[in-house]
Design brief:
Length: 96
């Protein structure tokens, strides 16, 4: 359970909830660059202003427009509505 243990007790004592806004985790690798592990947040998601782990940054909030069934950007035929997102990641050259 997310509320078990010391973090759950601390959030409870602070009067804070355990919820996180909608988000997607990303891990990017490229030769000669540091690996990037991050996440992006859904723009209209609840809890953006009160994330339980304080991970939201304005630069990580992204619009996820909903599209009707049909041809997706990658050419697949989608039978149900789907969402897309656009975000530019930047990798830092490694010190090696």
């Amino acid at each position: 359970m997310p509320g078990d243990g010391p973090v759950g007790r601390m959030l409870d004592k602070m009067g804070r909830h355990l919820n996180r806004p909608g988000h997607m985790h990303m891990m990017l690798n490229a030769p000669g660059h540091e690996r990037l592990v991050t996440h992006i947040f859904v723009k209209d998601s609840p809890y953006l202003d009160s994330d339980a782990v304080f991970g939201v940054r304005n630069s990580l909030i992204v619009e996820f427009p909903k599209h009707p069934p049909g041809k997706a950007p990658d050419g697949r035929e989608m039978k149900k509505p789907y969402y897309t997102a656009k975000y530019d990641f930047r990798l830092v050259p490694s010190a090696r």
